[in-house]
Structure formats: structure tokens, C-alpha cells
């Protein structure tokens, strides 16, 4: 009985892999739509870039950690000294939700040094 149960998933996996080989473009589109993943380009303070996959259900914390790692800066120091700009328009914070930020794919997160405003007298 258990052998029959084990054989059924193997056959299903073989059928799926054959379908994936037959239509790789279609399979890639389906997997992207199922898991809500998209590409995000990360740029650190030195201009180094990396393209990573992100998921809508996550927070910006993971992306910011990756950018800080690219710049070889500890996360706490990085978030204190740097700001992170989405598509050259909006400042993002680690606790921001990627879905609420409206990321759809091919977005850019750029790390920049925080500037202090001069105090008025």
C-alpha cells in the first residue's frame, strides 16, 4: 500500500517535469504568479548592484539587510547612517511592507548617506 502511495507522487513529478521541459516560458510565468515573487535591483553606496527576488508578503527588512551586507556595514549602523530610496522617489524603512510600497517588479532600492538638515536659529 505504501509503495503505491510513494509511486504516485513520483509519476506526478515526472509528468510535471516533462511539462516544464516542454514549455519553460509558460512554467516560469506560472511559478512567478503563484508565489508573488518579483525582481528588485539593489544599489549600495559605492554603486555596486545586485538583482534579487522578493515576495509581496515580506517586509523591506530583508532587502535592506542585503544592501547593508553588500556595503560591508553592520545592519544597525547601516540603518542609522543610511537611507534607502525606492525608485528614486520614496524613502523606505525596514518595517515597511513590500505590498504596501507597491513593488511590482524591476524596482530599484538605492542606499544613500543620510543628510542632516541645518538647524535654524
Characterization of this structure:
Residues 23-36 have a biased composition (Basic and acidic residues). Residues 1-36 are annotated as: Disordered. InterPro entries: Ubiquitin-like_domsf. The protein has helices at 2-22, 24-35, 61-70, 75-81, 98-101; strands spanning 37-43, 49-55, 82-86, 90-92, 107-113. The chain has 121 residues and is of the alpha+beta class. It has two domains: 1-35; 36-114, Ubiquitin-like (UB roll), CATH 3.10.20.90. It has a five-stranded mixed beta sheet. Strand 1 (37-43) and strand 2 (49-55) form a beta hairpin. The longest helix has 21 residues, at 2-22. The protein is globular.
What is this entry, summarized?
This protein has 121 residues and is α+β, with helices and mostly antiparallel strands. Helices cover 45% and strands 24% of the residues. The protein has helices at residues 2-22, 24-35, 61-70, 75-81, 98-101, and strands at 37-43, 49-55, 82-86, 90-92, 107-113.
Structure keywords:
single chain, 121 residues, alpha+beta, Ubiquitin-like (UB roll), 2 domains, 5-stranded mixed beta sheet, 5 helices, disordered N terminus, Ubiquitin-like_domsf, Ubiquitin-like domain-containing protein
Amino acid at each position: 500500500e505504501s509503495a503505491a502511495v510513494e509511486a504516485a507522487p513520483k509519476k506526478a513529478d515526472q509528468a510535471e517535469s516533462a511539462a516544464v521541459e516542454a514549455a519553460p516560458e509558460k512554467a516560469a510565468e506560472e511559478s512567478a504568479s503563484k508565489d508573488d515573487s518579483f525582481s528588485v535591483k539593489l544599489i549600495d553606496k559605492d554603486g555596486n548592484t545586485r538583482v534579487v527576488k522578493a515576495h509581496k508578503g515580506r517586509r523591506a527588512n530583508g532587502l535592506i539587510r542585503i544592501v547593508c551586507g553588500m556595503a560591508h556595514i553592520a545592519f544597525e549602523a547601516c540603518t542609522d547612517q543610511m537611507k534607502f530610496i525606492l525608485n528614486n522617489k520614496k524613502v523606505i524603512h525596514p518595517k515597511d511592507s513590500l505590498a504596501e510600497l507597491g513593488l511590482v517588479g524591476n524596482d530599484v532600492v538605492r542606499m544613500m548617506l543620510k543628510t542632516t538638515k541645518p538647524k535654524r536659529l
